[in-house]
Amino acid sequence: MPSLIALFTTQPSIYYLPFVYAIGLIGNILNIIVFCQSKLRSNSCSTYFICLSISHLLMLNCPCLFRIIAVINNYNIFGRINILCKISNYLDVLSLVLSRNFLCLICINRWMITSPNAWIRKQSSHRTARWTVIITLSFWILFNIHTATGYSSVNTVCASAHDYIVLSSIYHIVTAIGALIIMILFSFLTLMNLRHVGRRINPITILTGRIGIERQSQKRREIQFIRLSFLQVLLYIILNSLRTAMPVVIYHVTVIRTSLSNEREMIYLCYYWGTYLLYTYAAVGFIKITRKLIFSFGYF
């Protein structure tokens, strides 16, 4: 690998990722604290935002931190010990699919809460959110076991078996593109619902007293959650486009045809920078959210 390629893949791990890691750690912890406040805790969407922050913390404290340690020490222990190779790859993929999973659930929840159908709105309850989290979390934890079995330590490098490349590429393509379609689709449907939601949330009869204040406060929170979900989807699309496209490229150059040496180097570069942008999303995605919530509802 040319030194220029190596420079652009290793140097960010030394000078850029530690900053991303520190910011992300603080931001996601603050986000969890904010959404655990009594004013928001009962909202079903808060459960998904808390889980999304936890999945981001998993991403930052496992694959991101592992990468920083390996580059700074100039010794990749995760590529030399087979069990660590399998665990690190499993946690890497798990944190990514969980992040996509909870972001999709946030988009679906916002569509449900703005639906003109009363039965659909009723399904966006806190109880439903808890069970949805338990079921989807259990599914991904078990379903992703194949990502550990498909990788092993080979010549100080954590690499996938040749036969596993096809399965891995297809899996990443389906989960990445599928999640993107769900996010965009339900965000669009939410926007369509918002065109009619005003008549339902703002009746002609003016409510006064405590009940009116509580309903207005609830309306503010729901609108705020909708804005936050749109912001998360936008940041995801901007910062994850490169990483989302990489499985398609890798499948094309490894399965459909044999790649040239310079193509593999560029793919390697794009994959690492796609990963760095993914860590950036996990770190900065909630900074604006936490700030808006703190100033909007005055928690601190």
Characterization of this structure:
Helix content is 83%, strand content 3%. It is mostly helical. Strands 1-2 form a two-stranded antiparallel sheet. Helix 2 packs parallel to helix 13 and helix 6 crosses helix 11. The longest helix is centred in the C-terminal third of the chain and has 48 residues. The termini are far apart.
N to C succession of SSEs:
HHHHHHHHHEEHHHH
**How would you state the average pLDDT, rounded?**
80
Count every helix, treating DSSP H or I runs of 4 or more residues as helices: 13
Unreliable stretches: 200-207
Helix content: over 70%
Structural class by secondary-structure content:
mainly alpha
| Largest sheet, strands/sense/barrel | 2 strands, antiparallel
The percentage of residues in β strands lies in: under 5%
Distance between the termini: 51 Å
Q: Give the total of beta strands.
A: 2
- Rg, please? 21 Å
- Global morphology: globular
Major sheet: arrangement of strands: 1-2
